[in-house]
Amino acid sequence: MVRRVVAGLVLVVLLGWAVLVAAVSWAMHQSPEQFGRFMAKMPGPAYLVLPFETLWMRARQGALRVGDEAPDFNLATVDKSARVRLSDLRGKPVVLVFGSYT
Amino acid sequence: MNALYERYRDSAAFYVIYILEAHPSDVWQMQSNVRDNVVFSSPRDIEERSGLAGTCVRKLGIKFPALVDGFENATERAYTGWPDRLYVIDAAGRVAYKSKPGPFGFLPAELEATLREQAESRSAARQ
Questions:
Q1: Which pLDDT tens digit goes with each residue over A29-55?
Q2: Which residues does chain A have within 8 Å of residue B92's beta carbon, measured at their own beta carbons?
Q3: The complex's ipTM?
Q4: Given A33, B5, B75, B116, which is the most exposed site by the fewest CB atoms within 10 A?
Q5: pTM of the predicted model, to two decimals?
């Protein structure tokens, strides 16, 4: 009897965990804004039981691979004094640092 | 990244691509940002985004030029750049290094290894 109750409880916990992992993984595949809104509602302790980093690395892998042609862009500098087109920079390696303030 | 820029500025071009905020106060606020007083709501248009990008560059003391992604985030999507990520594009316009997604994958030391290889293969090609 006790054994059955314990087994049932373990099953419920495992199922709950699986649902949580699936939900977070789904959210990671949405747009950054949607993912941010999802995570804002997530209680802190959930991080401790989730393989967050593994899920994140997989979800945000992206389609670009080493050796692929780099997608071109033509973007304004912060002070809007100039525009820079990636394809104009051939002949030298280009380092791109993606990021934001927060 | 400034240190890498100082070391490799002659052999490579460096650009920040300022993309959508990772933790704006109206979406997913981080306590660490509140402590550091880095609290901003999401920019509502490209003007606001450029303004915040300028603040970011000044406050973080970034020494190399920063470009602002368009408001439809096309560059971010093409490179899966959010929340942060590093790339090296080689002289022929191909991806030579792509970091894993940040924050976990943001490892300047990995990028430096690629830059060193690029510099070596270029000097070998000249001989």
A1: 999 999 999 999 988 788 888 899 999
A2: 90
A3: 0.92
A4: B116
A5: 0.90
